[in-house]
């Protein structure tokens, strides 16, 4: 007998005692997609697939990995990925699982809210291709809309659908009541024009189980595809400590953005009243798309153009925290690549920092390692967290 999916409507996750855990809390697995769009990934995604494989292998040394590939690409993905990486067939418009996958929430031991027995659940946000028909990255996102639901169903978890348009890369939590986001993205008129800042904040609190939202005005300079996602700009290292994308070059447009963020972060506290410690993580470059790279993309009008000379939204903040590992992009800028590894090693002394060479291939299409991954938390008791 086929089991019906468990859909929870009319009640937010927090009502049932769920909250979004920090990314450094234990995972049961990582979810990824498989790139193939020729109008976004150059040379039919040949180079990107090699880097996605590197990322999947790196993460799989720390925790299980599931990669989802379309029917046309399943055999190709299966042949490139090692056997211990699970490969599932799934339709999608593109492979940004941070944004189109579910946001998982957990309920720890001792929480007796609501009537759901499962310790893990998934939020199925609404999605409009990062801005809709006029301002998004491509025209059709109908397959992406189903990815979160399919993943939650595969894991047989309760699903909390939400009307609000939100991508996973636009939020970051400390697991202790605080959420980071940007006004540039969440308040953009191409997402939820009928919601006020206060209404959006109320939804974040109800669905993520947080008590305070810290709003930065902007994301990373050049991150136009996502309208300034937080995961390129700033993230928590642990409660009370954040990493901030930084540059000392006052002529770089990123400088003003970093300074404004520094001012806000320096003059606020988290949900528990902690003053924030800020660790600066220098951006690479600046880096720009070459003529050769742009020529490899099919510019047929179905996706946002990839033009030569475009500044790439490259950031070392866009790393992934695995169970005991930090999977970090490397852009071929040796000075800042090495500096990023040093800073991340100090910020996460109990994690092994793993370099992913060639991560430029991901940023060419508008994101990086954090953008292509989605962690599924493990169900642990309060005493084990």
Automatic annotation (TrEMBL):
UniProt keyword annotations, A-Z: Hydrolase
Superkingdom of origin organism: Eukaryota
Record GO terms (molecular function): agmatine deiminase activity; protein-arginine deiminase activity
SUPFAM superfamilies: Pentein (SSF55909)
Pfam families for the chain: PAD_porph (PF04371)
Gene Ontology BP annotations: putrescine biosynthetic process
HAMAP family (UniProt xref): Agmatine_deimin (MF_01841)
Protein's UniProt name: Agmatine deiminase
Organism: Populus trichocarpa (Western balsam poplar)
């Amino acid at each position: 007998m086929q089991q019906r999916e468990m859909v929870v409507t009319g009640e937010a996750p927090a009502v049932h005692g769920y909250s979004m855990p920090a990314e450094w809390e234990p995972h049961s697995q990582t979810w990824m997609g498989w790139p193939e769009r020729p109008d976004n990934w150059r040379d039919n995604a040949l180079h990107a697939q090699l880097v996605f494989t590197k990322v999947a292998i790196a993460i799989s040394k720390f925790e299980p990995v599931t990669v989802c590939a379309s029917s046309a690409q399943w055999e190709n993905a299966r042949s490139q990925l090692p056997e211990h990486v699970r490969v599932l067939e799934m339709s999608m418009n593109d492979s940004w699982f941070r944004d189109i996958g579910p946001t998982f929430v957990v309920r720890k031991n001792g929480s007796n809210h609501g009537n759901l027995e499962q310790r893990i659940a998934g939020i199925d946000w609404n999605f409009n291709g990062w801005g809709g028909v006029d301002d998004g990255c491509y025209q059709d996102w109908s397959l992406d809309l189903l990815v979160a639901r399919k993943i939650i169903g595969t894991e047989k978890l309760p699903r909390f659908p939400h009307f609000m348009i939100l991508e996973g890369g636009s939020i970051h939590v400390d697991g202790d009541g605080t959420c980071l986001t940007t006004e540039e993205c969440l308040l953009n008129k191409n997402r939820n024009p009928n919601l006020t800042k206060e209404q959006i904040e109320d939804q974040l609190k109800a669905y993520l189980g947080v008590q305070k939202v810290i709003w930065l005005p902007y994301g990373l300079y050049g991150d136009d595809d996502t309208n300034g996602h937080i995961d390129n700009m700033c993230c928590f290292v642990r409660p009370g400590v954040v990493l901030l994308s930084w540059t000392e070059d006052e002529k770089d447009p990123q400088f003003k953005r970093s300074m404004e963020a520094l001012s806000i972060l320096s003059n606020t506290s988290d949900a528990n009243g902690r003053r924030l410690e800020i660790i600066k993580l220098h951006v690479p470059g600046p880096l720009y798309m070459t003529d050769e790279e742009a020529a490899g993309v099919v510019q047929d009008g179905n996706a946002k153009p990839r033009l030569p000379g475009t500044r790439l939204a490259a950031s070392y903040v866009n790393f992934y925290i695995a169970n005991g590992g930090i999977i970090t992009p490397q852009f071929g800028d040796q000075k800042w690549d090495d500096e990023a590894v040093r800073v991340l090693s100090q910020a996460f002394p109990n994690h092994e920092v793993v370099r992913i060479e060639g991560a430029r291939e991901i940023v060419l299409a508008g994101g990086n390692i954090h953008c292509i991954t989605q962690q599924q938390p493990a169900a642990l008791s309060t005493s084990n967290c």
